[in-house]
Amino acid sequence: MIRRHVALLRLALMVADGVTAALVFLGVALVRFAGQDSSELWTALGASPVVAAVVYGIGWVVAVWLQGLYRLRARWSLRGELVDVLRATALTALATLAVLFLLKLPDVSRLF
C-alpha cells in the first residue's frame, strides 16, 4: 500500500523540509538583525529575505536528497540516519559559507 504512494510521500516530505528550513532561516535572520535596519544588506544582495529563505530551503532539500534520505528503506538504523543528516547539514553549511564568502558581505557575521 505504501509503495503506491511513495512519490506523493516523498514530495510531501520535501515540501515540509523545505518550508521548515526556510522558516528556520527567517527566524535566524530575525534574531540576528533584531533592532537593526537590515534592508541595506538585502539590497546589497539584490534579493529579499523571503527569496533567500526559499533558496536556502531548496538547498537543504537538495542536500538531504543527495544523501538519499528520501528513499524508502526496508532496513533503517538510527546511526545511519544520523550520519546522513549530519552529512546533509555539513553540505548545506559548506555551501552557505561558500556563497557568503563569494559575496564578500561585510555585515554578515560568522555567527549568522
Q: How would the blueprint of this fold be written?
A:
Blueprint (H helix, E strand, L loop, with lengths): L5 H27 L6 H7 L3 H18 L11 H26 L9
Radius of gyration: 17 Å
Q: Total helix count?
A: 4
> Into which percentage range does the β-strand content fall?
under 5%
Number of strands: 0
Categorize the overall geometry: elongated
SS class: mainly alpha
Mean pLDDT: 82
Oligomer: single chain
- Largest β sheet strand count, sense and barrel closure: none
Unreliable residue stretches: none
Secondary-structure element order, N to C: HHHH
In short:
This protein has 112 residues and is an all-alpha fold.
Characterize the structure shown:
The chain is mainly alpha-helical and 112 residues long. The chain is 70% helix and 0% strand. Helix 1 packs across helix 3 and helix 3 crosses helix 4. It is elongated and about 50 Å long. The mean pLDDT is 82.
Please tag this protein with its features.
single chain, 112 residues, mainly alpha, 4 helices, elongated
